[in-house]
């Protein structure tokens, strides 16, 4: 039986090996990213971090990592994060943990973004994975109507708000043949703050399956 949690730890450890002293490191959100935060704390490097969620900031602080407020940061050396699904072209769906907007901002500020995942997250098509969309509560009704035209069905997360104070609607059943067009269409809806499509942000991925870690690098063959 595959031990997915063990695979997550292996992928996290491989990614953390890229971190050096004096780096400013972005910390992702979710169960896999939590393994990276733990691995970073164990290495005891002279680094500072920024977090993509209050939960990750709290975990990092508890484990002894120095966390800087991101609102004063313009550039990050490296960000390590998880993914809900990732394909061979390093396009991913993220946001099950609800932090996709902050994750995307930190990724944009980073010189390099690494995704870590267990083998179950590696897919040939992204469209089978629900796509989270963050929406201003003020725009709930209007945005929901527009989203209903893009997905087979939409589900608002009950009793849930992001760290930004917004709601999340998960879109199920979407056409992944033209993800860039979908990303543009989503951001054209007034009230949509962001979404979980990461189409060009990811530079590399460490994916572990049955104890074996594979590295995918944008523009290179895996090794």
Automatic annotation (TrEMBL):
Gene Ontology CC annotations of this record: cytosol
EC assignment: 5.3.1.6
One matching Pfam family, short form? Rib_5-P_isom_A
Give the matching InterPro entries.
NagB/RpiA_transferase-like (IPR037171), Ribose5P_isomerase_type_A (IPR004788)
Q: Name one GO biological process term.
A: D-ribose metabolic process
Does the record carry Isomerase as a key word? Answer: yes
Keyword annotations for this protein, in alphabetical order, are:
Isomerase
Q: Report the catalytic activity.
A: aldehydo-D-ribose 5-phosphate = D-ribulose 5-phosphate
Which gene underlies this protein?
A: rpiA
Name of the protein in its database record? Ribose 5-phosphate isomerase A
Q: What is the lineage of its organism?
A: Bacteria, Pseudomonadati, Pseudomonadota, Alphaproteobacteria, Sphingomonadales
The superkingdom listed in its UniProt entry is Bacteria
The kind of enzyme this is, by top-level EC class, is isomerase
> Keyword NAD, does the record have it?
no
MF term (GO), any: ribose-5-phosphate isomerase activity
């Amino acid at each position: 039986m595959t031990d997915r949690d063990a695979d997550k730890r292996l992928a996290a450890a491989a990614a953390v090996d890229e971190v050096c002293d004096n780096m400013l490191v972005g910390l992702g959100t979710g169960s896999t990213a939590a393994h990276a935060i733990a691995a970073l704390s164990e290495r005891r490097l002279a680094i500072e971090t920024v977090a993509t969620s209050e939960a990750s900031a709290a975990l990092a602080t508890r484990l002894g990592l120095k966390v800087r407020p991101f609102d004063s940061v313009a550039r990050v050396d490296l960000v390590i994060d998880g993914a809900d699904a990732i394909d061979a072209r390093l396009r991913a769906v993220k946001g099950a943990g609800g932090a996709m907007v902050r994750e995307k901002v930190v990724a944009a500020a980073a010189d390099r973004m690494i995704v870590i995942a267990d083998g179950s997250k590696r897919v040939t098509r992204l469209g089978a994975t629900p796509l989270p969309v963050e929406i201003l509560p003020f725009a709930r009704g209007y945005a929901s109507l527009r989203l209903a035209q893009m997905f087979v069905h939409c589900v608002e997360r009950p009793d849930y708000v992001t760290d930004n104070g917004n709601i999340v609607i998960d879109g199920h059943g979407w056409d992944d043949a033209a993800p860039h067009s979908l990303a543009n269409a989503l951001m054209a809806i007034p009230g949509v703050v962001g979404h979980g499509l990461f189409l060009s942000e990811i530079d590399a991925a460490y994916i572990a399956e049955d104890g074996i870690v594979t590295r995918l690098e944008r523009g290179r063959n895996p090794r």
